[in-house]
């Protein structure tokens, strides 16, 4: 999928970024100070296995091979990371290397002069750009200039389901929204939650709306919001999508107490692989978590997966997806010249090496480096990886995660109102009125 590099297209993905060394992290890993010329760059990224191990491993290998400086790593849990980055970047205390998702958050850093323009470096090092998926650069680009290095893996949102539970109850995976609603009382009657959900994290709730907006009205509905059109949230398809998700909540479609479950705890994942929930809408990275923590759930064939089904009468292509096309590394404009050089050396020599590509595949992820098809086919997780590769390569629209596509200000209002929507404390009309107030902010 060839994604234009303009702000006006949302067929890219999302951004947030690391936090400051002055803030307390949830964990720390990586090599110590010093080495080479004595220069040290800093790098903050997300914690949580198995992804954390791949990230820190890449840094350790780079440090071992480098005699021109080192990189120190600090890790954060997802939600804490997103909260602290605003303070860290705003205080001028960002790490040298800023981990993120691209998109609206990156744009805000660019407009504030907080990250470097990497376009000249990519022009001087075309081989670095040429080995990555072209579609990954959309969310790294602001007004035609590249401000981030795409890396890691492509991550569509996937509807996972427990084959054991489906077999026990004697039902089939849903082929439409109506099928999903019909399954709710079937599973509830057996004491099984129809859907696992870590609702306290809010962005997990958002994935439901992203798909429903697309399936009902097509990508044009959120595109209008992204483009800043007045009252864009009030589109009839948006009202219908908001109403449908509240219908699902009222029907007890989600596990009881979902609003107190956090995604960082992986409790939502555990509900699926322990047969307490039948289905879960989550990022493709969930496969690796269930593989690592779910015993033989994945290896025994208990895990099923599919794209989000269509809504009857909807305009959206059922092959469309939402999620992250990659993850992104930017360089703080406040870093020293020596630190910036270390960061660029890491981008050129330490990112998506053969070893790292293999490690991502082993976690159940599809790395964004070209030419990985053979390794995907040889993996024990070949079926899932080829499924993800198919979604990423065939989707006519791969929508950007909303909280990353929008500005940080609008995204916070969005997430707050999504939480309230799922708690049934605002109506679809109140939700749209509240969001219309921050369009373009």
UniProtKB/TrEMBL annotation:
Residues 1-24 form the signal peptide. The keyword Signal applies. Gene3D superfamilies: Periplasmic binding protein-like II. SUPFAM superfamilies: Periplasmic binding protein-like II (SSF53850). It comes from Streptomyces synnematoformans. Keywords: Signal. InterPro entries: Bact_solute-bd_prot1, SBP, TAT_signal. This is Extracellular solute-binding protein.
């Amino acid at each position: 999928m060839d994604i234009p590099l303009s702000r006006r297209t949302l067929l890219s993905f999302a951004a947030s970024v690391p936090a400051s060394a002055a803030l307390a992290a949830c964990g720390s890993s990586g090599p110590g100070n010093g080495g080479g010329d004595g220069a040290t760059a800093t790098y903050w990224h997300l914690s949580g296995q198995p992804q954390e191990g791949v990230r820190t491993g890449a840094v350790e290998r780079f440090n071992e091979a480098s005699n021109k400086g080192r990189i120190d790593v600090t890790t954060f849990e997802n939600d804490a990371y997103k909260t602290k980055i605003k303070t860290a970047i705003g205080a001028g205390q960002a790490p040298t290397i800023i981990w993120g998702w691209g998109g609206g958050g990156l744009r805000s850093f660019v407009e504030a002069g907080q990250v470097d323009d990497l376009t000249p470096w990519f022009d001087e090092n075309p081989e670095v750009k040429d080995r990555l998926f072209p579609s990954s650069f959309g969310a790294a680009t602001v007004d035609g200039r590249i401000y981030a290095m795409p890396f890691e893996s492509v991550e569509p949102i996937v509807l996972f389901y427990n084959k054991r539970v489906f077999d026990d109850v004697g039902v089939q995976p849903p082929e439409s929204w109506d099928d999903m609603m019909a399954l709710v009382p079937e599973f509830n009657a057996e004491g099984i939650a129809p859907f696992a959900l870590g609702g306290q994290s809010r962005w997990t709730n958002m994935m439901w709306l992203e798909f429903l907006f697309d399936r009902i009205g097509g990508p044009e509905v959120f595109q209008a919001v992204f483009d800043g059109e007045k009252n864009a949230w009030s589109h009839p398809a948006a009202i219908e999508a908001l109403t449908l998700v509240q219908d699902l909540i009222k029907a007890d479609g989600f596990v009881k107490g979902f609003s107190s479950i956090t995604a960082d705890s992986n409790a939502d994942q555990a509900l699926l692989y322990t047969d307490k929930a039948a289905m879960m809408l989550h990022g493709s990275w969930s496969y690796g978590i269930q593989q690592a923590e779910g015993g033989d759930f994945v290896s025994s064939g208990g895990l099923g997966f599919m794209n989000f089904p269509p809504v009857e009468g909807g305009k959206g292509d059922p092959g469309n997806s939402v999620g992250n096309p990659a993850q992104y590394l930017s360089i703080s404009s406040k870093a020293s010249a020596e630190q910036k050089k270390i960061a660029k050396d890491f981008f050129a020599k330490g990112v998506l090496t053969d070893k790292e590509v293999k490690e991502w595949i082993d976690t159940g992820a599809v790395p964004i480096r070209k030419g990985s098809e053979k390794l995907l086919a040889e993996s024990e997780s070949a079926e899932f990886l080829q499924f993800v590769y198919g979604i990423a390569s065939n989707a006519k629209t791969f929508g950007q995660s909303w909280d990353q596509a929008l500005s940080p200000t609008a995204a916070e209002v969005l997430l707050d109102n999504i939480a309230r929507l799922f708690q049934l404390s605002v109506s679809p009309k109140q939700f749209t009125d509240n969001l219309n107030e921050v369009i373009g902010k």
